[in-house]
Design goal:
The chain is α/β, with parallel strands linked by helices and 374 residues long. The protein folds into 2 domains: 144 residues, no CATH class; 199 residues, TIM Barrel, CATH 3.20.20.370. Helix content is 47%, strand content 10%. It is built from 13 helices and 9 strands. Strands 1, 2, 3, 4, 5, 6, 7, 8 and 9 form a 9-stranded parallel β-sheet that branches. Helix 12 links the parallel strand 7 and strand 8. The N terminus is likely disordered.
């Protein structure tokens, strides 16, 4: 009874009433143009930015009770939500300014936007006419961005009590927000996991494609691998790739008493066995970490490695091509960033090649994992 009581109190403390809604994904075939060059990337990017901005500004008309109900939560942290909304508007403006640079080559979705005020003005009146070339894309895109926004606002509503990648505790925590336009970093959670594990396949594919990705591993999984295979075999698996840590076990590092030991042990093991691949980055499982951890991470010389584009392929949530199309849509929206795939899900063997192939003609770059998070 005592356990049930504490679980009930814990759930109430986070205000949860219901699970999140459907995961956002968009069938890219609804977009009528093949993304065959950088200019067409910009056209699609402007369209996704305007659609998301339209959904975002509409959400701001909801009062707190209505927003809580929409997000399926009993209580919400409006201060956190407003902070995340402000961050979204600043990034949307910056991205739209980059996307506007090709308006002299194709004027589709080009409007006068000079600051956040004019972006909000355009977002408030944005619509796609019934006779538009892009009409088949419009409603599926609106649905996608509504669901995606709800994903972000729900995380913001629970932050910082339930930490996630939606916001930072300090500049020692990084995602891809400061990366250059059109530059993306591929990362893979749950690498070197007990079978099934696709780390070797992913790493080989990346090497063939001249791409360096960052694999985040658990200390206990590396220890288990080394009990079955040689160090040189493990090093061969991750050749030309980067390896960071997720701790010793995949569990929340926000309420775990031994979280510091978890990080130190895994870093020591990976740094010792994979010295050519190790990067001083800790990715918190499910993005959950403590708010007061800055001194520890700075002392350890570690960066908390978050992400801003989630493939949502963990636990089979989305199938391969669905996951890839979600990622591509978010690449168009955010124009740079850290992409998070799950290495133990077979979906990645479909989604990764699809994504690399689709993005080859559009002028994006893949960040060298050794450069770290910008």
């Amino acid at each position: 009874m005592r356990i049930v009581f504490f679980i009930s109190i814990w759930l109430l403390s986070f205000g949860a009433l219901a699970a999140p809604g459907d995961i956002a994904t968009l069938d890219r075939s609804t977009w009528p143009e093949k993304l065959s060059n950088p200019t067409l990337f910009d056209v699609a990017s402007r369209a996704e930015i305007l659609m998301f901005s339209s959904v975002l500004i509409t959400s701001e008309t909801l009062d707190e009770p209505a927003l809580a109900q929409r997000l399926g939560l009993r209580t919400i942290n409006m201060e956190s939500i407003n902070r995340v909304r402000a961050q979204l508007w600043h990034r949307l403006l910056s991205n739209y300014e980059f996307a506007q640079q090709s308006c002299d080559q194709d004027a589709s979705f080009c409007f006068l936007v000079e600051d956040i005020a004019t972006l909000r003005e355009q977002a408030a009146k944005f619509q796609v006419s019934e006779d538009s070339f892009y009409i088949k894309w419009a409603e599926p895109s609106r649905t996608f961005h509504t669901r995606y926004l709800d994903e972000q606002l729900r995380k913001a509503a629970l932050f910082p009590q339930t930490s996630s990648e939606v916001d930072h505790f300090g500049d020692y925590e990084r995602d891809g927000d400061d990366m250059h336009d059109r530059l993306f970093l591929l990362t893979f959670d749950s690498a070197a996991n007990a079978l099934p594990d696709n780390s070797a396949w992913i790493a080989q594919y990346l090497r063939k494609s001249n791409i360096g990705g960052t694999f985040f591993v658990l200390g206990k999984d590396i220890q288990a691998r080394l009990a079955e295979q040689s160090v040189s075999s493990l090093q061969s698996t991750f050749s030309q790739q980067c390896v960071g840590v997720q701790g010793w076990e995949f569990r929340s590092h926000s309420h775990w008493q031994d979280w510091q030991d978890s990080v130190r042990r895994s870093v020591e093991l990976v740094k010792n066995k994979l010295p050519e691949n190790f990067v001083p980055q800790f990715r918190p499982p499910d993005g959950q970490r403590r708010a007061d951890a800055e001194a520890f991470f700075r002392t350890q010389g570690l960066q908390v490695a978050l992400w801003d584009i989630d493939a949502q392929d963990g636990a089979g949530r989305l199938k391969g091509e669905q996951s890839a199309q979600r990622v591509l849509t978010l690449m168009l929206l955010w124009r740079h960033g850290v992409i998070n795939f799950n290495a133990k899900q077979d979906a990645v063997k479909t989604s990764l090649p699809w994504l690399v192939t689709q993005t080859a003609p559009i002028g994006i770059g893949w960040e060298d994992c050794q450069n770290g998070f910008r």
